[in-house]
Amino acid sequence: MGLVLMLTASAQTRQGGITPQMLRDIEQQQTTSAADRALRNAIAANSIDNLAQNHLNAGEIDTHFSIETKSQSITDQKSSGRCWMFSGLNVLRADFAKRTDSLSVEFSQDYLFFWDQLEKSNLFLQGIIDTAKKPIDDQRVQFFFKNPLNDGGTFCGVADLTAKYGLVPKAVMPETFSSDNTSRMSRLIDTKLREFGLQLRDMVAQGKKVADIEKAKTQMLATVYHMLVLTLGEPPTKFTYAFRDKKGKPLEAKEYTPQSFCQEVVGQPLNGTFIMVMNDPRRPYYKTFEVEYDRHTYDGHNWKYLNLPMEDIEQMAIASLKDGCKLYSSYDVAKFLDRKRGLCDLQNFDYESLFGTTFGMTKAQRISTFDSGSTHAMTLTAVDLDAEGKPVKWKVENSWGAANGQQGCIIMTAEWFREYMFRLVVPNKYVPENILKLSEQQPIMVMPEDPLFVADE
To answer: Which residue of 12, 112, 249, 297 lies most exposed, with the fewest beta carbons within 10 A?
Structure first.
C-alpha cells in the first residue's frame, strides 16, 4: 500500500491534475467481481433510493402519538418556496381555532406573498444604495446582486409582514398561477431589480441628491408593484367576510380591513411574543446570533436565533405541544425521507452498503461543508413519549398537499429529528425563564452567506 501511495503522489502533475499514472492507479483499485457487475447494471437502470431502501425498515409505521394537537386542513405550496409562510400561517390559524373553540379560517398566502415580494424588492434597492460606494465585487454588494428576490424566508417574515400589512382570508385573495409557480415571475423581477440596482449605483457615483435617489427608487418600486399586480392580483383594502364554526355554519358577516382582520384573528403583534432557537453544534450553545440583512422588510427584524442543545429544544417543543400549541419548525427534510410513506428515518436507506463506503460526517461537519442545513419549514404538531418522557418520534404538518406522505403529514424518528432539525419558533410562555433571558443578550453578528442561514423554502 505504501508503494502505491508513493507512486500515486509522484505521478501527479505539479498543479495537482490527474496524470495517466494516477488514472492507472485509480483503475487498479476498482473491483470487477460478479457482484460489482450486477450492482452496476442495477444502478444504471433504477433509482438509487429504490435500490438503497432498507427492506427491514419497510414495515407498518406506528402512527400513535401520546401528545397530539388538533388536526387541521393540509395546505399546498405547489411549485414555490413559501414553506415559511405556509407553516407560519398554519400556526396562526391553529392558535385562532384553539382560542375561539374551533372557528376555522385559512389565510391568503397570496396576499402576504405580494407584500413580501414588494418589501424584499425595497430591501434590495435600499441595500444597493447603502453599499453604492463599495466596488461591485465587494462581498456585500455581491450578496444583493446574486439574489435580489427570493420566495424563501423564516417566521420573522410572518411577524413583520402581518404587523405592517395585516391578513386576509384565502377566499378574498386566492392563489394565482404565479403564486403557485413562482420561478418565472421571480426571475423577471430579479432581472429588472438588477437593472435598477445599476442605475442607483450610477446615481450615487454621480453625486445625485438623496431626494432624487429616493424618487427614483419609488418609481422603480412602482414598476415592481405593477408586475406583482399582474401576476398575483391587487391586494384588497376592504372586504366582507363571515367565519364558519366547527360544523361549517357561517356566522354573521362583517366588514374588515386587512389590519382589523389581523387584529381579530391574531390579536397583538407577533414580534416580542416568541423566540427563535436553533441547533448549530459548530457554535457555542446559549449564545444569540443575528444575521445581517437577512430579513423580509428593510425596517423589520433580522433573523435572530438562540443556539441551544437539542435537549433544550425538545423540552420546549414538548411543553408547547402538551398545551395544544403547534409550532413553526424547519429541517433538512430531503435527507433519508421516504416521501411515499411520509417517514424521516436514518434507517430508511442503506447507501453505505450499496456503494461500499461510509458517510461519516457529524451534524457540525455537514453544516460547515454545506452538505446539510435548514431547507424546509413545517408545522410541528405531535410527539410520542416513552415511559421516561423522552421523545420516540415527532409529527409535522407539511405544505405539499393532503395526498403526500401521511395524509399530508410526515413522521420523524427521534434520531432523525436530532440530526436534521435546525430551527424552532417557541411562544415565550413555553420558554424557561433562564433561556428567555439568554435570548435577550447582545447577539453575535454573522454573515448571511453562512451555510445554516439560508431561507426556508
So the answer is: 249
| Residue type at position 26 | I
Q: Rounded to whole angstroms, how far apart are CA atoms 52 and 124?
A: 44
- Residues in CB range of 231: below 8 A, 6 or more apart: 176, 178, 179, 185
pLDDT(15) > 80: no
The C-alpha cell at 148 is 435580489
CB 356 within 8 A of CB 436: no
- How many Å apart are CA 283 and CA 307, to the nearest integer? 8
Beta carbons within 8 Å of 344's beta carbon, 6+ residues apart? 331, 333, 335, 336, 337, 338, 410, 411, 412, 413, 416, 417, 420
Residue 111 has pLDDT above 70, yes or no: yes
Between CA 51 and CA 355 the distance in angstroms is: 11
HSE-CB for 223 with a 13 A CA cutoff: 15
CB 455 within 8 A of CB 87: no
In angstroms, the CA 232 to CA 115 distance is 10
Please give the full DSSP string across 69-98, using - where no structure is assigned.
Answer: PPP-PPPB--BSS-HHHHHHHHHHHHHHHH
Contact between residue 382 and residue 68 where contact means Cβ atoms under 8 Å apart: yes
Question: Reduced to 3 DSSP states, what percent helix, strand and coil does the chain have, rounded to the nearest 5?
Answer: 45, 15, 40
Write phi, then psi, for 259 (nearest 5 degrees). Answer: -70, -45
**Of 5 and 344, which is predicted with more confidence?**
344
pLDDT tens digits, residue range 52-77?
999 999 999 999 999 999 999 999 99
Q: What is the pLDDT of residue 176?
A: 98
Beta strands in 205-247 (DSSP E): 239-241
Among candidates 300, 307, 265, 310, which has minimal Cα distance to 282? 307
Tally of residues, the chain? 457
| CA dist., res. 411 & res. 403, Å (int) | 15
Mean per-residue pLDDT for 26-48?
91
Q: Measure the CA–CA gap between 115 and 225, rounded to whole angstroms.
A: 9
Q: Which helix (H) or strand (E) holds 186?
A: helix 183-205
Catalytic residue numbers read 83, 376, 398
> Which three-class secondary structure state does DSSP give residue 234?
coil
